[in-house]
Every structure is written in structure tokens, then in C-alpha cells.
Design brief:
Elements: H1 2-30, E1 46-47, E2 66-67
Antiparallel strand pairs: 1-2
Length: 82
């Protein structure tokens, strides 16, 4: 009976540790603090390339401002994005 009891005790201890780790993991993952808020950010924007500035078959380097949308009068386009 000593060997069987020792074996069952070891197996029970192992199962208990695994169950405890699993429950602890679930409590750690699913009990996040509710007061933590992550700020949102604007998407970076898009580049508008005026085609009249491009010359065919000529390599050139240009820099353009990033804009939120293609409306030139939109107030969101005034914000620096890059």
C-alpha cells in the first residue's frame, strides 16, 4: 500500500498544481483592471501626388504632406501627420 499511496499522492499533487496554474492563468488574463484606458490615435494619412508635378521618364525626389482625406478644405488636413 505504501507504493500505491505514494504514486497516487504524487499524481494528485501534479493534477492539483496544474489545476491551480490554469485557474491562476484565467484569473490573471480575464480580470483586467477596468480603469486602464488606452488612447486612440489618428491614422497616419495618405499622400496626394499632383500629377502635373510629375515629368514622364524623369526621376525626381519630392516630399508631400500627409492628409486625412482628399478634400483640400477639410480642417483635419491642417494637422501635421508625419
Amino acid at each position: 500500500m505504501g507504493l500505491v499511496g505514494c504514486l497516487l499522492g504524487t499524481i494528485g499533487f501534479g493534477i492539483g498544481v496544474l489545476i491551480g496554474l490554469f485557474i491562476g492563468f484565467l484569473l490573471f488574463i480575464y480580470n483586467e483592471p477596468a480603469d486602464v484606458k488606452v488612447g486612440t490615435h489618428d491614422k497616419l494619412g495618405m499622400q496626394i501626388v499632383p500629377l502635373r508635378l510629375l515629368i514622364p521618364h524623369k526621376t525626381q525626389e519630392s516630399s508631400f504632406n500627409l492628409v486625412k482625406n482628399t478634400n483640400p478644405n477639410d480642417s483635419q488636413n491642417k494637422k501635421r501627420r508625419g
